[in-house]
Records
---
Amino acid sequence: MTGFVVFRGVNKGIEAMSKVLMPILFILIIGISVYSLTLSGGEEYDNRTGMDGLMYYIIPNIDGMGVGDILKVIMSAMGQLFYSISVAMGIMVTYGSYFKDKDNLVKSVNQIELFDTIVAFLAGVMIIPAVYVFLGPENMAAGPGLMFVAMPKIFAQMGTAGTVMGIIFFLMVLFAALTSSISLLEAVVSGMIDKGISRKKSTLIEGGIAMVIAVVVCLGYNVLYFDFTLPNGQVGQILDILDYVSNNILMPVLAIGTCILIGWITKPKAIIDEATKNGERFLRKGLYTVMVKFIAPVLLFILLLGSFGVY
């Protein structure tokens, strides 16, 4: 109980900070997205424009793609969902345990769906057109690092104002990453508190372990550098290996286990009853039942097979 009270205090601080920083970051994303669409590369960049990049982003191009290629895209999108809404990480379970009985769970889920989708789309509008203009479509596969390649180029085009906006933007990204890190730590710390370890000691232990792993990961790009071919055919270093194990194996396995637990053992009705205990309307309970019992576990199993390079 003490750990819960302390967390509520810490969480209120984070919530207060988020109420200021997140709207600023959201406004920045909208502004930069609009500016990204106005970019023009000129002769140096074959006259590529931001609007060309937007079309590249929103219009599917399946020329030369087989069923397997399309399936890989779908599976990649599913994998992104794990990180986007923290599925199978323990975060939702931990935070859910702090949920008040009077809170509207259905409304919260709807808000998460809506805002997560909007922000994800705007992030693409912000980055993809700039990458298209300055680096070309052939460099779209660079991954998360694209933000640190494309965004400086956008800010450089803005002159002095771009320098200021760049500083503010990356500070906001830093704070966004910090709050996400706190969420990740809380899932582990909460479990340690349940075992009788104080929150302070739990935080120090988990923070120390995370710091050691972070140092090893950083060294993986210099002193401990090596190339390792993963089962899915990709070549990576220490960070890529850890990312592969957690994202491509552990999280799908846990998600499949969750579907089995909720869909066939606990039964979806238990979740539906919990979500509607204050009279809330759960209009998609039929869809939820079908998804958690049949569709989600099958798709997750296919995703897991892809992680092992089966297709």
Note: The first strand starts at residue 228 and ends at 229.
---
Amino acid sequence: MKRKKSANTFIGRTGLKLFQKSNLIPFFVIFWLVLAILADVIATDRPLAIKTEQGVIYPAFSAILNPHRIDRYKLGSEDKQERILDHDHVDWKQLPNDWVIWAPVPWSHEKPDVYNRDFAAPGGKQKIKSANGHMTDIPFRFRHLMGTDRLGRDLMAMLIHGSRISLKIGLLSTLIAGLIGILLGAFSGYYGNDRLRLGRGSYILAIFGFLIGLFWAFISGSPRLNAGFESGLFHASIQIFLSFAITAVCTILAILAGKLFFRQEVRVSVPVDQFVQRFSEVFSSMPKILILLTLAAVLKDRSVGMVIAIIGLTGWTGVSRYTRAELLRIRELPYIEAARMQGISVSRIIFRHALPNAMGPVIVELSFLVSASILAESSLSFLGIGVPVEVSTWGSILSEGRQDLDAWWMVIFPGLAIFMTVYLFNALGRRFRASQLSRR
């Protein structure tokens, strides 16, 4: 006999299918992106606007440009005493004011609430220190609606700021993986194993030039890469680009040297597709966690840029396969053959004529790759080998929830955030794929 499906399972699956078929998915993705971008003014313990004896100031907005701002002012021309307002250390909730406008979540993701530490429950008792110094029940406006962690940090503020880190890692690592995968897949699909022909001597020198470039860029240049990773994402991206450029320049110089010294040589086919496929298989078989553990042991300080680079440099294989498959199909079309017969350069054919028509399935794969990158970052942070300890991410919050199993909110809320984000980007990818199939 077939087991009957429960009503709850049927309702849940039906609800997910209806949500996936609705037009709300892009709006939820945009909402998530806006929430991550505006995290500094959505979840902060600094007021959006406050009127004090100094006048009207906007601490939350000024913190974006100058987080350690210190105001020195006098009440009047006859006032000889200089007053100091340190935006970093003042307790804004205790500061006397005429009126104040708080952020939607009036707590910082970094500064703990010492009166509600040790995992304050969302519906439990929460205290606050009043202006006269007495401990009272916290008003609803300042309640920690999702509870706190062991240090007293607001969980909702941590989740909002963690969304910025997760989306930053997901989008930027996908950008790196997309650029590498599209380039390698395009050349692999267009040239195949027989369309690129070089002289035998140039072919051999090109292999040696490529190996020398790899050694020079990534092994001899490891101190330069280490310094780039430790300096931040921007410097790490520059160093990675420079390393690939060094490898490419060495290969091109070796080919030119071969053409210069071996002019009357037999031309042979270069199996570009075979090289790229074997290279892709090597990267697919390398565990990201093992790579990150190795780099964490080599690098002195972990950083968000390091996680982005590792996920991006190891996640391009799927994009490469889709791009290769599309280029293998498109290169046989009549308009590509006509462009080749007219003597149009290979780079122009690939980037102006072939790739634009091959981007449909690639965009679908990139949307899936965003969710996979976010899930990979959460897994690494959960294991404690991802971003630095002081950076709050969804995975690190889940890891902290293991310290006290009674603090269910430390597991439920970040778990739901990860699930919803991954589901939204996967649903967006399925929507793109359905639109591509309908066009065909």
Note: The first strand starts at residue 49 and ends at 52.
